[in-house]
Amino acid sequence: VVAAAAFAALVIAGCGGSGGNGTATLNYYIFPEPSGSFAKAAAECSKASGGKYNIVINTLPSASDAQRQQLVRRLAAKDSSIDIVGMDVNWTAEFAGAGWIKPWSGSQASQVTNGVLPGPVATATWNGKLFGAPLNSNTQLLWYRKDLVPNPPKTWSQMIQDATQLAKQGKAHYIEEQGAQYEGYVVWFNSLVDSAGGQILSGPSTVALGPPAQQAASIIHQLAKSPAADPSLSNDQEDQARLAFEAGKAAFEINYPFVYPSAQTDVPKIAKVMGYAPYPSMIAGKPARVTIGGINLGVSSYSTHAADAFAASACMANRPHQLTDAVKGGLPPTLSSLYDDPALAKAYPFHALIKQQLANYGIRPKTPAYSDVSLAIQKTLSPPDAISPSTAVNSLNGQIKSALTSGALL
Amino acid sequence: VSTGAVTAPTAAPPRKAKVTTDRAKAERRLAYMLIAPSVIVMAVVTAYPIIDAFVLSLQRADLRFPSANKFIGFSNYGHVLSSSLWWSDVAHTLFITVISVAIELVLGMLLALAMHRAIFARGAVRAIGLIPYGIVTVVAAFSWRYAWEADSGWIPHLLGLTTDPLASRNGSYIAVILAEVWKTTPFMALLLLGGLALVPDELHEAARVDGATTWQRFWRITIPLMKPAILVALLFRTLDGLRIFDTVYIFNAGAHGTETVSILGYNQLLNRLNLGLGSAVSVLIFLMVAIVAFLFIKGFGASAPGAESS
User: Fold this and answer.
1) Among A190, A366, B52, B282, which is least packed, fewest CB within 10 Å?
2) How far is the C-alpha of A199 from the C-alpha of A362, rounded, in Å?
3) Gyration radius of chain B over CA positions
4) ipTM of the complex, rounded to two decimals
5) pLDDT digits (tens, 9 = 90+) for A12-41
6) Greatest CA separation found in chain A?
7) Nearest-CA residue of chain B relative to A99?
8) Torsion angle, CA of A179/A182/A187/A192, rounded to 10 degrees?
9) From the list B255, B268, B271, which residue is nearest A409 (CB)?
């Protein structure tokens, strides 16, 4: 009885919808943003609503797959205590396809897509409808040591050659990448496939791997087998790559812009010689199409305050808040015009490069079964040095196809 | 033959009495009422999830495609059992279990003997020995992973390794098994210590008078008398080992060919949200564990746990 009463109390507290004074409580689930810029946006938007709603931030775990697991468990159970969901761009198709989030329409849809770069909008679109307000984007750049590499390499083959050369001279030479069996490895593979002119899926359930995928698999294998590979490549995620570069072991690093301010704080000596360049190409002369990351704000289908949730999401993704997120939190905005803002230019010396890469973007396969596709790719291509370039594409084809039927074990 | 019968300790009516007295009836009713709360709790927390998992395993049930859910009989089991992934994961799980339980048995026995023979500070020795077991598995796994990390860990540093031990299959297995052994040897030792206490000192003294060596006394007296305790310890640890998840997950989430059946089930259930396939994997793990438990009890006969004492 006591337990039942406590449970009932929890349920009531959990569903705390409208307050007595007509102010709706909007539960906003988002990753733990350390600078506090999301909290600031939530507070400012609540205030600006004039008592219509109050946004309460609920922090998700810090690991991306743990964030998704918590959200999907709650959404699949039709949890009405979620109003706004902060989704990784690659979850949008899954959430929309399952009917867990509501489409944006009319003036609100145009409000959150006006002036937004096409890549982020593409990630938020499913079946021709907009399912998220693009809050921020992200793209990986090539970071390199200016003291070791006078001219940054333009292609992957060139970079592997340069690194091998440095290794012969006994200098720091690793190429830091994300080769662990996880989502970041899929980002690497997807960027290479896109840059080689191919794609993984040509529709929600049509596998389209071909020669570009084979080239991508061979480059990964070639790197893993060369002296350019960090011995820990097969366990490296973004942060291990950042740390290895900061430790002075690497000449190159493929990573998100957060590594730049981090090096400045951690190792000013390395930061001084840290250069940035476009993500290397697969085809000489043809710019790479780099897989973009970022967050879209969606409104839960089970929210009891959907209208307020749409308004609040639009507010938190507006220009002033995107600027704060970028300058304070280091999250690249989705609004094109912000890249010309002097405040952003100051915080991001490489802002033009980011904008250029976001304009020539690549995105991960859009399918409700994305997690199956991702799992199939990670497992088939892991570890990087065991890839057999000639058979990898065939087995990937088979794995992804059976993953999409949801009948095969992965 | 063992029946594994578990009877309520409350007054069971004498078996031969065909005619039940009113008093016996009342006592039986009372017994049922007394065990009812725990039966209900068990049904809710154990039986219901098991039945639900079995029902789900007979369906195409995917949280992402709710409209496509339907009954498909044993197809999910067909998919799992015909997949090479399932069988290789079974092999990985058995490998980790057999090796780590074997090492734990030897080390646990040494530790138990040490704790049994400790002359001074007996309580302190036992408490210290149990510390690893008291640490949350995830926390222990994290500290071992950091210890093995190529750049910052003390183990590669100590061994003078230039490569990353966790970037290879062998290294990953060694790391996982050592972490398991470190964590659960104290548990093994504790169970064996209980067994050691059963061995009467007089037998040792008599054997010593007859000229038996220490080694002979250990093999001929201690071990046979401890057999029930050894079996309990082996059974518990084997069943735990077959369900290993945390340590492997923390080290590399099953990369480098270390994926276990529990991680396989987790991937289907929590990553893919494929409740049908995932439940089939869970039910198969349950069966695997049940078969091993059955073999232990059958194979070791009357001295096995759960067997009726003669």
Assistant:
1) B52
2) 9
3) 24
4) 0.87
5) 444 444 445 689 999 999 999 888 999 999
6) 74
7) B64
8) 40
9) B268
Task: Measure B94 CA to nearest chain A CA, in Å.
Answer: 19
Give me the amino acid identity at A376. A
Contact yes or no for A98 and B277 at CB 8 A: no
Model confidence pLDDT, tens digit, residues A139-158: 999 999 999 999 999 999 99
Tokens of B82: 């015909």
CA dist A168 and A173 (Å) reads 9
Beta-carbon separation of B79 and A409 below 8 A:
yes
List the beta bridge partners of residue B89: none
Q: Rounded CA gap, A399 and B49, in Å?
A: 31
- Angle in degrees, 0-180, between the axes of helices B275-300 and B84-117, rounded to the nearest 10: 50
The token pair at B296 is 């232990």
- Are A398 and A248 a contacting pair, CB within 8 Å? no
Q: Do B85 and A181 touch (CB under 8 A)?
A: no
CB A177, CB A280: distance < 8 Å: no
Using DSSP's 3-state secondary structure scheme, residue B163 falls into coil
Compute the distance between CA of residue B175 and CA of residue B193 in angstroms, rounded to an integer: 27
Query: Of the candidates A383, A406, A410, which has its C-beta nearest B267's C-beta?
Result: A410
Amino acid identity at A218: S
Residue of A nearest to B62 (CA): A406
> Token pair of B304, please?
């096995």
Burial of B14 (0-12, 13-18, 19+ CB in 10 A): exposed
CB-based contact A408 B79, cutoff 8 Å:
yes
CB B105 within 8 A of CB B238: no
Task: Report pTM.
Answer: 0.88
